[in-house]
Amino acid sequence: MKQLFRETWIEVNLDAIKKNIRAFRRYIPKQTKIMAVVKANAYGHGSVGVARHALQYGATSLAVAIIEEGIVLRQAGITAPILVLGFTPLSRVKEALAWNIELSAFQVDWIKEAQKIVRASDFSGRLNIHVNMDTGMGRLGVRTKKNLLSVVKALEASPDLHWNGIFTHFSTADEADHTLTKLQHELFVNGLRYLEQHGFKLPTVHMCNTAAAIAYPDYSADMIRLGIGMYGLYPSAYIRSLNRIRLVPALSLKSRFSYVKTMLSEPYTISYGATYIAKKGEVIGTIPIGYADGYSRALSNRGFVLYKGKRMPIAGRVTMDQLMVSLGERKAKQGEEIVLYGKQEGGEITVDEIAEMLGTINYEVVATLSNRIPRLFLVKGEVVEITHLLPKG
Ligand SMILES: *Cc1c(COP(=O)(O)O)cnc(C)c1O
Question: Where is the chain membrane-spanning (predicted)?
Answer without folding.
Answer: none
